[in-house]
Design goal:
Shape: elongated
Low-confidence stretches: none
Mean pLDDT: 90
Largest sheet: 4 strands, antiparallel
Structural class: mainly beta
Order of helices and strands: EHEEEEEEEEEEE
Distance between the termini: 52 Å
Strand order of the largest sheet: 6-5-9-10
Number of helices: 1
Oligomer: single chain
Length: 180
């Protein structure tokens, strides 16, 4: 069919259709699995995939449905709004290593998930904004902080900030460096 349109024939006009796209390692799905357990499936441990998506749509009597697919990760951008700064390194501390394949009613961490530090080193230093710097699992995490090692007017300085406690899938968060 047309670009970004797919046809799935359903035999019954009732129930719910769940779609996953670009999700690696789906080995935990089993035949006969309860729906509640399926909706609680975690992602594979590790970095959040920028391409993973999920969608849910109730099936009724309509002939055609549009499914709004959502990214399973949050995107972190760097916005540099000053000309006198060079960024050498960005580090995000205490990042959840798993999320859920489907959005939960309340953003929460996967039980027993591990946390890690992720970073990017820039050589040469960057002086302009950068999009898609990191991708994070959706998480409720009050301990997540960011450290940005910069050189401002020739002086090395580490900028530190707390990230929002709730990081939502399909959202973009910006680390902004301004003159003040």
């Amino acid at each position: 069919t047309a670009e970004n349109q797919y046809q799935i024939d359903v035999t019954e006009k009732k129930g719910t259709l769940y779609l996953l796209a670009n999700v690696p390692k789906l080995d935990k799905i089993t035949e006969g699995m309860y729906e509640e357990d399926f909706l609680q499936l975690p992602t594979a441990e590790g970095d959040a995939s920028p391409k993973a998506m999920s969608g849910i749509i109730p099936i009724g009597t309509d002939a055609t449905y549009a499914i709004d697919m959502k990214h399973g990760a949050a995107r972190i951008d760097l916005l540099i709004k000053t000309s006198n700064v060079k960024v050498k390194n960005i580090r995000i501390n205490h990042v959840a290593q798993q999320g859920y394949l489907f959005a939960q009613d309340v953003v929460q961490d996967v039980p027993n998930t591990s946390f890690t530090t992720i970073s990017q080193q820039f050589d040469p230093f960057i002086t302009e904004s950068k999009f898609g710097l990191f991708y994070l699992h959706e998480q409720n995490n009050e301990q997540m902080t960011v450290n940005i090692l910069t050189e401002i007017d020739g002086i090395e300085k580490t900028l530190e900030s707390q990230l929002p406690e709730v990081i939502k899938r399909n959202h973009v968060y910006s680390l902004e460096i301004t003159e003040s």
